[in-house]
Design goal:
mainly alpha, about 80% helix
Length: about 325
């Protein structure tokens, strides 16, 4: 399938999900969600967003440094805010990440390496999110607890296979697969496992997941859901997995996943949709500093200068 057809397929799928929700539940849950948003909710969204964005930016600097391209934390925070805003407002859901990788790669003199740094940074965060979700599903009751054990076994097997792949990749063989395997192993060793990178990647990723889960809990409470946090946390993590699927500026899969999770848990699909709407508004508000980065030159200093500054600092520290 061509990229253009794939984009239309994703757009059509997200639109179909929204249409199905409106057909089954009406527009009431959407209105309820919008009415539930107040100044306190928006302030919490901004505050939590600062923490999660700084953690993401820190993770990015560590991975990029492991791959051999320097990036200062201030530059990473500004670029990450811009990336999140673009991801939420443009079709596809990954435009901001591509822009972030290309721009950093150009300023660092290696576009390919810049894109790989972004890919590994985002990928590692999603792996940690998946593992944390699995752990919570194994410990706390949820609508899918019965399938958590076989999924855990599958994840353990895949992890062992990945470790063996990285460990046994050696500079031999000239096939495309051999070269790709060596490249992946080299990036994982340098970007994710080298020089204390793994603790930082794991910690920052866990904080990001917890921050998003907290945002979801705030959204659920604002939407009128009074279930205890122990019951809501698995639902939040399950719904967040659905949010990984690109939609229409974030809409579609998020509402569908949350409606299903809440319905399966007996909390009402309408409350799930209202929660998803509040969460979507909170996510957009948390990303608004990215619009300022786009519009204000003073808030978006040249990345090249900041990269150079990071390199100078590294030489001075040595």
């Amino acid at each position: 399938m061509s990229p253009r057809r794939w984009r239309w397929a994703r757009f059509s799928g997200a639109a179909a999900v929204l249409a199905a929700i409106v057909w089954r539940l009406g527009t009431g849950p959407f209105r309820d969600g919008l009415r539930a948003v107040d100044a306190r909710v928006l302030a919490l969204a901004l505050g939590i967003g600062v923490v999660t964005t700084v953690c993401c930016a820190w993770r990015w600097t560590v991975v990029a440094r492991g791959l051999g391209i320097e990036l200062s934390l201030p530059a990473a925070v500004a670029a990450y805010y811009r990336s999140i805003f673009l991801n939420l407002t443009l079709p596809g859901g990954v435009v901001g990440d591509v822009h972030r990788g290309v721009r950093h790669g150009r300023d660092a003199g290696d576009v390919g390496r810049g894109l790989r740094a972004v890919a590994w940074e985002r990928g590692s965060g999603q792996v940690v999110q998946g593992l944390l979700t699995l752990v919570v599903l194994l410990v706390l009751p949820s609508p899918v607890r019965t399938v958590a054990v076989p999924v855990a076994i599958g994840v353990a097997g895949a992890t062992i296979g990945a470790v063996l792949l990285v460990d046994r990749a050696r500079p031999r063989g000239r096939s495309r697969w051999a070269r790709a395997r060596r490249g992946v192993a080299r990036d994982v060793r340098a970007g994710l496992l080298g020089r204390g990178a793994l603790p930082v990647v794991a910690l920052t990723s866990a904080l990001v997941v917890l921050g998003h889960a907290l945002t979801f809990l705030v959204a659920a409470r604002a939407a009128g859901v009074s279930a205890p946090p122990a019951q809501m946390l698995p639902l939040a993590l399950l719904a967040m997995l659905g949010m990984v699927v690109p939609g229409i500026a974030g809409w579609g899969p998020r509402e569908g996943a949350t409606a299903w999770v809440f319905g399966a848990a007996g909390l009402g699909a309408d409350h799930g949709v209202a929660t998803a709407v509040v969460y979507g508004v909170m996510a957009l508000v948390a990303a608004l500093p990215g619009a300022l980065v786009l519009l204000g030159a003073r808030l978006d200093p040249p990345l090249r200068a900041l990269v150079a500054g990071a390199k100078t600092d590294g030489v001075a520290d040595a």
